[in-house]
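Two entries, shown back to back:
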Amino acid sequence: RSTIQSASEFATRNQLPPRLQDQILAHICLKHKTEGLKQQDTLNDLPKAIRSSILNYLFLPIIQKVYLFQGVSFDFLFQL
């Protein structure tokens, strides 16, 4: 987000035409999406057990706070 804001400020400060501004922002968005894909590729290359451990570490605390899953066993949540 700060990158997008910096790019917008740069474009405004240098009075770039809207077409160039759009190209800059499109490039930043594409770069961000590509980085996300690289992260997914990295995860996919890992063994399933390690991948599960990482995903549970990252998302289990969030899932446990969801009303729908309150009172559900840890084993069930781990299987999600």
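entry 2 starts here
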Amino acid sequence: MGKSVKYAGRYRMRLLEVQVIVDKGYGKVDFAIPYLREYLREHAAFIRMSLER
């Protein structure tokens, strides 16, 4: 992804704080919001194109 460990850790903490993800052990997380994984997978191409603008 081209980002530092510090950068990723900062965003991991933010997502944990707002309960979007939950800690599942060392180096592992899971989505806390029901069906978020499925939504992101279904819309990944659209999201990627939107971010490239």
